[in-house]
Specification:
alpha/beta; 13 helices; 408 residues; single chain; 4 strands; 4-stranded mixed β-sheet
Length: 408
């Protein structure tokens, strides 16, 4: 009996409190919790008053036509201000906040002032919504620029981007100076881990791709050489081509897609998770800690991988020469020794060193400059690979011209 009496008292309290009017917009105590959402538009001089009422929820029915009409009336002539207020507002959730935010942004786009006369609880949430800026790359839709407009935008961005690249080069130079003075924050275990990733972790794919590339090069070269009875020169063609430039180029292409992209994704993800900011807060240089070990490891290991790539490429040529061109193993090996000079290997190592610097630089640069969103990480990874490949081509052209001028 006491339990039943207590329940009756509670029911009586609920009935009594339901008759007490509450401030508009309090979701816990709504005037009309079951009424449908509605929207009224009234024009008074140069002011458009938007009155919200009823219960606004994602599950309920919203006044779509009235909402669309509200947006369309923002373009009326002589309009200077939009006033958003609430009357008999019931329960509400994020659907109402989203509409208010869109209305305020649309009013701003039309050059109109926007005054919000809403409950304090809603005002607090709206202040938070407008205080936090949207992250770069988080928008679902962006206006597409025309060709000339996009070209002009890129041209205007170039000075700032070039200055940023030079700043990153300066940071690396200062980091190398600290390393030589013994004051760098680079850890030896990070350096050796990066060396392992660039060497043992990439050895199989480098060996297979260059073996197949040596086979292809021998096949292509033999098409014309066989017609002249000069198939013995396939050995020199494959040996010189692989040692001088092609072995290093193939290693560079493979490493840009495998390691350069991994650097950009790893450091970019650390940017998103604010781990780079944490390093700076602790007084640790991110360039010393993240960039320098990867740059040194890739610069050291790509020449060694190039040696393996050259050998595998010549093995591929050997298989074609002996198995298809009817050359004896001794003939092929002797022809390779006679035609291939030591200087070709040195030139190939010069290519490899430059490729290592280019791949590590662009991978780490785009990772450090990554915007803090998932889309930004993907864009940084793709851009790092593209810029690495372009850098490899440009480096190849420059070194080739220098070698021709010096007659090396």
């Amino acid at each position: 009996m006491p339990r039943a009496g207590l329940m009756s008292a509670n029911e009586t309290d609920r009935k009594d409190t339901s008759r007490i009017p509450s401030p508009a917009g309090d979701g816990a105590h709504a005037l009309q919790p079951d009424s449908m959402a509605s929207l009224a538009l009234v024009r008074e001089g140069d002011t458009l008053r938007v009155t919200l009422s009823g219960s606004w929820s994602l599950e309920g029915v919203q006044p779509a036509k009235s909402m669309q009409k509200a947006f369309s009336r923002l373009g009326e002539e002589g309009l200077a201000c939009v006033e958003i207020c609430a009357q008999d507002l019931g329960e509400w959730d994020s659907s109402l906040l989203a509409f208010v935010v869109d209305m305020r942004r649309a009013a701003g786009a039309h050059g109109l002032a926007c005054e919000l006369l809403l409950p304090e609880s809603m005002q607090d949430l709206l202040r938070l919504a407008f205080a936090v800026k949207s992250r770069e790359g988080s928008e679902k839709e962006k206006r597409k620029l025309g060709f000339l407009e996009g070209l002009g935008a890129k041209a205007l961005e170039f000075p700032a981007r070039f200055s940023d690249v030079l700043e990153f080069v300066g940071d690396i130079a200062l980091s190398l100076g600290r390393l030589f003075r013994g004051k760098s924050a680079m850890r030896s275990k990070d350096f050796f881990a990066a060396m392992y990733e660039c060497s043992v972790g990439s050895l199989a794919i480098v060996a297979i791709t260059n073996l197949l590339f040596g086979l292809i090069l021998a096949f292509v070269g033999s098409v014309q050489l066989v017609s002249f009875g000069a198939q013995i020169y396939v050995a020199g063609l494959v040996g010189i081509g692989m040692l001088r430039v092609l072995g290093a180029v193939m290693v560079g292409v493979v490493m840009s897609g495998r390691v350069g992209a991994a650097y950009a994704a790893l450091i970019g993800t650390m940017q998103v998770n604010e781990e780079v900011d944490a390093l700076e807060t602790m007084g640790i240089s991110p360039v010393d800690f993240l960039v320098l070990p990867r740059l040194l490891a890739l610069t050291i290991m790509i020449p060694l991988l190039t040696v393996v790539a050259d050998l595998m490429g010549m093995v591929g040529g050997f298989l074609v020469g002996v198995g298809i061109l009817d050359l004896s193993p001794a003939q092929y090996i002797q022809s390779t020794i006679n035609m291939v000079n030591f200087k070709h290997g040195v030139v190939g190592l010069a290519y490899a060193v430059s490729f290592g610097v280019v791949i590590a630089f662009f991978g780490c640069y785009h990772g450090m400059r990554c915007s803090r969103s998932a889309q930004g990480v993907g864009r940084a990874t793709t851009t790092a690979v593209v810029h690495s490949l372009v850098g490899i081509i440009v480096s190849t052209a420059i070194i080739t011209i220098i070698c021709n001028v010096l007659k090396i």
